[in-house]
Write a structure and sequence with these properties.
heterodimer, A: mainly beta, rod-shaped, B: mainly beta, 9-stranded antiparallel β-sheet, 14% helix, globular
Chain lengths: 14, 257
């Protein structure tokens, strides 16, 4: 099944 | 020096109850704009962004930008001691290691203050890009809560799909499958009960229901919820906080390998 991604995959550190 | 007086203290109580199970410790950032918070859950799957604008406070004094680390469970314990009709004032000193919550009953016959220890929290601040979403669904928050709760008794994940037909929530589990379709329904005389679907292009994403159910703890803050979906971004579940700001929950999708 599909794997859980994380927020940090999409949003970078400021 | 920091002094924030919130006449509708119940809003702060509700905000903390809405996020305390998702986030253990968080920095509250206070600036001229308002009181804000950004934090991820421990597994970095969800992110919560809170804004309470300064204009929403009866009195708002924040002499310089300050970041205050708080344990949300401890904050919840203290705010639970405030009555639902109480006025809440948050007071702090620059560089202090405590914060004070003052609760005033509506007729001023009971005044309490609770001093809470602050903590140092090493948190990363993430940049949330402005995005064009493929679809934005606005629906009654109670309806969204009901759907997430109902589906989680059948499956662990939900596929949220937006097409011209409406927004579809699908789950699958050991006992079977479930599909719930909500069609656009613009109730003119009761805008809070409307379901409004803006679609630029069809989108379908898979999410863990456990997180969505956690987000619905914010339901009492707003009659409606906005769900913004794009195929290459976390979903945004937004609850507006009357005249003050918002709580936005971002949830990373489940992706096929």
């Amino acid at each position: 099944g599909p794997k859980q991604s994380t927020i940090t995959k999409f949003f970078g550190k400021v | 020096m920091l002094e924030l007086r919130l006449v509708q203290g119940s809003l702060l109580k509700k905000v903390i109850e809405a996020i305390k199970d998702l986030v253990t410790d968080a920095n509250f950032d206070c600036s001229a704009t308002g009181l804000s918070l950004q934090a991820m859950d421990s597994s970095h799957v969800a992110l919560v962004a809170l804004l309470l604008r300064s204009e929403g406070f009866e009195h708002y004094r924040c002499d310089r930008n300050i970041s205050m680390g708080m344990n949300l469970n401890n904050m919840s314990k203290m705010l639970k001691c405030a009555g639902n009709d109480d006025i809440i004032t948050i007071k702090g000193d620059d560089g202090g290691d405590t914060i004070t919550f003052m609760f005033e009953s509506p007729n001023q016959d009971k005044i309490s203050d609770f001093e809470m220890k602050l903590m140092d929290i090493d948190s990363e601040h993430l940049g949330i890009p402005e995005a064009e979403y493929h679809a934005i669904v606005k629906m009654p928050s109670s309806e969204f809560s009901r759907i997430c709760k109902d589906l989680s008794s059948i499956g662990d994940t939900v596929v949220i799909s937006v097409t011209k037909e409406g927004v579809k929530f699908t789950t699958r589990g050991d006992i079977g499958t479930a599909n719930i379709v909500c069609r656009q329904n613009k109730t003119i005389d009761k805008p809070d009960e409307a379901t409004i679907i803006e679609m630029n292009e069809p989108v379908s994403l898979t999410f863990a229901l456990r997180y969505l159910n956690s987000f619905t703890k914010a339901t009492s803050l707003s009659e409606s919820v906005t769900i913004s979906l794009s195929s290459d971004l976390p979903v945004v579940i937004e609850y507006k906080i009357a005249d003050m700001g918002y709580i936005r929950f971002y949830l990373a999708p489940k992706i096929e390998d």
